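Hello,

I think I submitted the zinc ion job twice by accident. Can you confirm which output corresponds to this input? Input:
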Amino acid sequence: MALDRFLDLFLQRKCPLCGRSTPDFVCIYCSRALLACQAAQFCELKTPLPLFRWGVYDDALKRAIATCKYNHQPRIATFLGQQMGIRWQKEKDTQKLPKMAVVPIPLHPDKLKQRGFNQAELLARGFCDITSMPCRPDLLQRVKNTKPQMETKSVQARKDNLDGAFITVKNKTKQPILLVDDIYTSGATMTAAVTTLTQAGYKIGAMLVLARTGLHDR
Ligand SMILES: [Zn+2]
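Support: Only one job matched these inputs. Its output is below.
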């Protein structure tokens, strides 16, 4: 990834979304279309844990997430992670929060091998590039290869699907944790990760997602 970023500085590459030449992660036209997908309200939920969401899961953002994950375009996630960081620094709601250790929701190793990268980790890294918070993907591991949450039908099925999905190690940081994921559907994935980390003695500060499904408000 470091080499990839280094090369990006010198090479004109093709925009992963439209194919135009660009020195950036995403061309100026696609960048504009993506920025237009930002949600008006960044802080989506205040209790029990603050939940921040960057965008509305629709239009250009929905296509970009699919292209990133299924057409192997990791640069889209890095770009969007940076945008999440820029938004984080601009918003009032985040100013009173402490500096946190940023933990991306992990993929199961089999899925990671198949996809080649974890989009949540790239979002977290892009976010940390901007905010200078420490990125700690080592804190949480996925030990159960769960079905995609969108394919599970009921709330109970979602919970069962994620039961025992994550493990963690104790005493790796005293900082509160900011959990990062790409899409928030029912919240079951975040809840499972929060439970695992809390039981190990970590304090969770907030959750941050790129987009939340099932919401069409801006
Ligand atoms: Zn483009």
